[in-house]
Amino acid sequence: MPDAYRVVVIGAGPAGLGAALNIVRARHRTLLLDANRPRNAATLHSHGYPTRDGISPLELRKLGREEIERYPEAEVQNAKVTTISQEDGRFRVEAAGVRGTTDRDVTADAVVITTGLVERLPALPGIRAHYGTTLHSCMTCDGYEESGKPLALLGETDDLAEQAILLSRWSDDIVVFPHGPAVVTEAEERELGERGILVERRPVRDIVGDRGGMTGVLLADGELVERTAGFLRPIYEPALGYAAGLGLATAQDGLLLTDPEGRTSLPGVYAAGDSTVPGPQQLIVAAGAGARTAAALIRDLG
Ligand SMILES: Cc1cc2nc3c(=O)[nH]c(=O)nc-3n(C[C@H](O)[C@H](O)[C@H](O)COP(=O)(O)OP(=O)(O)OC[C@H]3O[C@@H](n4cnc5c(N)ncnc54)[C@H](O)[C@@H]3O)c2cc1C
Fold first, then answer.
1. Environment class of 249 (CB within 10 Å of its CB; exposed 0-12, middle 13-18, buried 19+)
2. Structurally, how many domains does the chain consist of?
3. Residue 233: predicted pLDDT
């Protein structure tokens, strides 16, 4: 017989931690499962979370898990959920152990989805070496530390001009590199030019650097545009294949649609954090959404 829980929370990022903490405090027997592959592990410092500005993202998660594990109603395990299905009015959650932990096969009255996003970075060989240290995706999170530096803005989306204007809050030396299918129109290029922001239309071969971080953007023709930090526009995908059988309503980009309190289109299934519309946000926003969703779940379960 599968183990029976009142609630299973899937994903122990800030959204899952915020949800699980409040659910166990309502005395519901709760299992928190986590694949333990946080997207922000690439970075050494997280910013903008009150009382924890500058903390390592792994430390923040560790503190959150420890708080939850103090409650006898809580169980926290590293395992990657492979399927959620509905059986006899309950949810069945199956998960594969990660790095030696046991596989799980459990049931629950309610499920909270907080598995964040997967991000696809531009396909350049050197990008991962600098991502999270001198190459970032969130200006609000890391713009301050890169203030005043010669910055690159690279991406495959069509909002680069808008992003470049936002980035000029932190530096007045910006070069925009539209990559792949990205479009910066001539009108946008003129507007950026008036603000002293350059657009480099030659194709990019790689991001190059040394132990201290990135040193520049190498163009396909061999020229190096010197830049000591930069920002990317990744493509985000929610990777919710494990919940496909539930037929949850999603937006066009695959992100989960919920009501303002985190209820998905299927009663008993809740969601919070980056895997819900509008997508990538910040740690504090995800943690708050998790707590708000827990409040709705607690009311609904009675
Ligand atoms: C490089 C980088 C730097 C950032 N820096 C900052 C910053 O400084 N300040 C800030 O406020 N925000 C920052 N962010 C954004 C912030 O990390 C996210 O907004 C936040 O983590 C989203 O929280 P979440 O709980 O929704 O998802 P996540 O934190 O992504 O957590 C999702 C969890 O679910 C797990 N999971 C995924 N699939 C499964 C599955 N099938 N089964 C079980 N578990 C699963 C994952 O392993 C992960 O642990 C940064 C993001 C990145 C990528």
1. exposed
2. 2
3. 87
Q: How far apart are CA 210 and CA 36, in angstroms?
A: 29
Q: Is 82 in the pocket of ligand 1 (CB under 6 A)?
A: no
Residue nearest to atom 2 of ligand 1 (CA): 40
Phi/psi of residue 18, each to 5°?
-65, -40
Query: Which tens digits make up the pLDDT trace of 123-151?
Result: 999 999 999 999 999 999 999 999 999 99
- Please give the distance, rounded to the nearest whole angstrom, from the Cα atom of residue 40 to the centre of ligand 1: 6
Query: Pick from 176, 209, 233: which residue ends a domain?
Result: 233
Residue 32 and residue 13 in one domain: yes
Query: pLDDT digits over 184-222, tens only?
Result: 999 999 999 999 999 999 999 999 999 888 999 999 999
133 CB near ligand 1 (under 6 Å): no
Tell me: do 109 and 161 sit in the same domain.
no
Q: Does ligand 1 lie within 6 Å of residue 118's CB atom? A: no
State if pTM tops 0.85. yes
Contact 139, 50 (CB under 8 A): no
Domain region containing 281: 3-117+238-301
Do residue 48 and residue 144 come from a single domain?
no
